[in-house]
Design a protein that fits this description.
With 374 residues, the chain is of the alpha/beta class. The chain has two domains: 231 residues, 3-Layer(aba) Sandwich (Aspartate Aminotransferase, domain 2), CATH 3.40.640; 126 residues, Aspartate Aminotransferase, domain 1, CATH 3.90.1150.10. The protein is built from twelve helices and 15 strands. The strands form three sheets. The chain has an eight-stranded mixed beta sheet, with helices on both faces. A four-stranded antiparallel beta sheet has the order 10-12-15-13. Strand 2, helix 4 and strand 3 form a beta-alpha-beta unit. The longest helix has 18 residues. The chain binds pyridoxal-5'-phosphate. The site of pyridoxal-5'-phosphate has 14 residues, from helix 3.
Length: 374
């Protein structure tokens, strides 16, 4: 059987080990240390924000973002519906209630029209909005920022999948008051696991460092006036991140080349690539297609997935929308004109192999298998 082709797997370069070795050599294996501080500074500089705090997971950065936004028992958070559960689960950690906002069709992200309906419907109860940039494609951020300002609610940007993507020339992860990125295993760069909280509010970043190290009061003994967490990234893990960051732009251009090869190959086929706005530059983390309506049936995303799997090639369904998840069966969901866009993309869509170690020949094989099904 031919070598496995992955959806998106870690790509290491060697510099990672240099930073990790340095941590060993100086015995800064734990707790914090130079790699953590430098990794935070380097990411903040790359993104163009004032400060950053490294966490053991992107999920934890999001959790502390909700906490800082003041989300508490019974508060509503308006959330992207078509996303990974990690965008929305931490709302529950603070006792908040998720209300899901449907996607638009131009970026697959939060529909500003549906968001406005949610802001009106829950006026007075909404503490925050969390918007994800799905598969590395920036959402309609100007419209979403404007609405959050108008209704005076905190915007949290989940840029976990979109590190290095830009919107009108500005990096994603800078549009929220609080922002999160992820370095999980399959993301555009990885630390094996980890994430970061980003903000221009340096006091907020200090607060996140405090909560993520068990909320210790400044006393010689262990004294606590608040409940904290153990969320801080280790100096070893940060070393991997520093090495990876040197290759972020290279990863992005390889991802883009993969997307464009699919786009060319499928130009005259009844499928559509995951779309983006002309004034945005996605990081093309995952290339996806939806099958056009008139071709659906004889070919389905599941048929494509199984045909690829039979050839040792990994493809994955689109994230199943949050409003379709059993755990959120009782949460409200807001769509425009009764059109359930998230469910439609989920039914007709699939994520294709987007691994940057995939050769052109391997990608040609993937394309040929898919074309053969139509
Ligand atoms: C990966 C991901 C997260 C969570 O990041 P972790 O580092 O895995 O905790 C959050 N939101 C989205 C959209 C993601 O894809």
């Amino acid at each position: 059987m031919a070598e496995k082709i992955w959806l998106s797997s870690p790509t290491m370069h060697g510099e990672e080990q240099k930073f990790v070795k340095e941590a060993f050599d100086t015995n800064w294996v734990a707790p914090l240390g130079k790699n953590v501080t430098e990794f935070e500074n380097e990411i903040a500089r790359y993104i163009g924000c004032r400060a950053a705090a490294a966490m053991t997971a992107g999920t934890h950065a999001l959790h502390l973002a909700f906490k800082l936004a003041g989300v508490t028992s019974g508060d509503v958070v308006l959330c992207s519906d078509l996303t990974f559960a990690a965008t929305v689960n931490p709302v529950s950690y603070e006792g908040g209630v998720q209300v899901f906002i449907d996607s638009e069709r131009e970026t697959w992200n939060m529909n500003p029209e549906a968001l406005e309906e949610g802001l009106k419907k829950y006026n007075g109860r909404v503490k925050a909005v969390v918007v994800a940039n799905l598969y590395g494609t920036p959402a309609k951020l100007d419209e979403i920022v404007e609405l959050c300002d108008r209704y005076n609610v905190v915007l949290i940007e989940d840029a976990a999948e979109s590190l290095s993507a830009t919107y009108k020339g500005r990096q994603t992860g800078t549009f929220g008051r609080y922002n999160a990125i992820s370095f999980n295993g399959n993301k555009i760069i990885t630390t094996s696991g980890g994430g970061m909280f980003l903000s221009d509010d340096e006091e907020a970043v200090q607060k996140v460092r405090f909560y993520s190290t068990q909320a210790r009061d400044p006393a010689p003994w262990y004294q606590h006036s608040e409940i904290g967490n153990n969320y801080r990234m280790s100096n070893i893990v940060a070393g991997i991140g520093r090495g990876q960051l040197l290759h972020l732009d290279e990863h992005k251009s390889l991802k883009k080349a993969i997307y464009e090869r699919y786009e060319r190959a499928f130009a005259d086929m009844p499928v559509t690539m995951n779309p983006y706005l002309p004034y945005t530059e996605p990081n093309f983390w995952l290339s996806c297609i939806t099958i056009d309506n008139d071709a659906m049936g004889s070919v389905t995303p599941e048929k494509i997935r199984l045909a690829l799997e039979a050839e040792n090639i990994e493809a994955r369904p689109i994230w199943k929308p949050m409003h379709m998840q059993p755990v959120y069966a009782n949460n409200d969901y807001i769509t425009v004109n009764g059109d359930d866009v998230g469910a439609d993309i989920f039914e007709r869509g699939i994520c294709l192999p987007s691994d940057i170690k995939m050769t052109e020949e391997q990608q040609e094989r993937v394309i040929k298998i898919i074309k053969g099904l139509f």
